[in-house]
Predict the 3D structure of the following.
Amino acid sequence: MSIESALSSIGEKVAPLTPRGRGVLFIAVLLIVSGLIAGTMEGYVLASLATALFALVIVERFFFVARVASASSLKVRWSFNPDPPIEGRPLQVRVVVENPTFSPVEYAVFIDEPPPLFKIQSPPSASLFLLAKSSAVIEYMVEPILGKHRWGRPRVVVEDPLGFFRWETLLPVKAPTLTVYPQLLALPRRRLGLPTVLQPGGITKMRRRGIGAEFMELREYSVDDDSRLIDWKATARLGKLMVKVFEQESYMRVVLIVDETPSMFRGVIGKTKTEYSIRLASTLAEYFSKRYDYFKVIVIGPKGELSISPWLRGRVGANYARRLLAEKTVWPRTRIDGVSENVNAFFKAVDIVAGSGKNMLLIVISDFHESPARAREYAIKLHKLAERNYTAYAIIPVTAFFEVQAIEDKITANVYKLLVYESITKYKEIARILRLYGVKAVVAGPQDLLHILLDRIEAMRGVVV
């Protein structure tokens, strides 16, 4: 066994030595060997120097072990601003590190582990000098992406002042789980103030005479009218009994299905089809809440995870839908090859929708695994909803239109569109198959998808835009 390997084994037993610490021990051993070879007086001096070096290492080790014991007992708490965080907006992470022991923590570095997909805008680490029973605050900035993310366990690195020892480990603390909410797409203000008009029957019937909140007209009294509706001022003015007629509203019932197929996660982070689909669904939920519609949200994960909301309405319902869409979006850590679980979950979701009632609007956001054959299976399943007077819309985000957003040069972007023309025609084939089975398919990119869909929805209400 060589001297260097022997020193390494000794160092590992004593403490985690750094190259500098191994070098000091190596020098001490050389001094002892040199002292044995040299004369009595020189040997005594060299042995004294070697003993001093050994003593220095041992003393440093003693204090180092005490620091390590304190550092391994650190407590960590996280807080975030804003809470809840919104994708794309800077997120301030505040980490409170507490030393619960009676021994100080010196010459230590704390390293936090934010989710790997987050963009780090400032270093998530800091040097620590904690007295006994004290705490320190570390703040840094990240740019989050939407979905549910788990923080990694933080690390702590301890060194001695002379650099002889170095210890690094993961702290035994429970890392937080963070849900990042999606941004809402720009919703035209003029659409929120659109009126509804009388339409006969079906899901387009939005307003009819009855007892409601808004006055509609005056008419002459008939024997089957409620006497409480008589307008006595109008009666006195016109000389005959007049009653008030109010608007009674019946609202749309909408089911939103976000199908997070494995292919929806491909692309540049921040501009993938999954992220846009979540933003679109959240914006539609916000829109339906302001139009006082009833809506239900269904999220299908890439591995067949099925999440279904109750019937929602109003501002509370929109917030619930947005939170559900964010929490159920979990980024796969490995490549997902199989699609059978996702397809089976979609068929199950359609069966659940079919049992929810009749005369509804169904909006499916999916790329149908980018396969015309798979789209035919979906279309056959969705066609059965026509028997229950469903109107089904399929929103098909085109991969190329999302990927081209990451290309800043316009000429390069246009060349890229030409190169992926075949894939675009494949999406058109998917839409054609869906339309054959009575599903209204919309193929578009991120720029105009929301406006196209809102035009179709308002047309169903009978609104002239």
Notes: Confidence is low (pLDDT under 50) at residues 9-14, 193-213. Residues 371 and 430 are 7 Å apart (CA to CA). Residues 3-71 form one domain. The chain is about 40% helix and 25% strand.
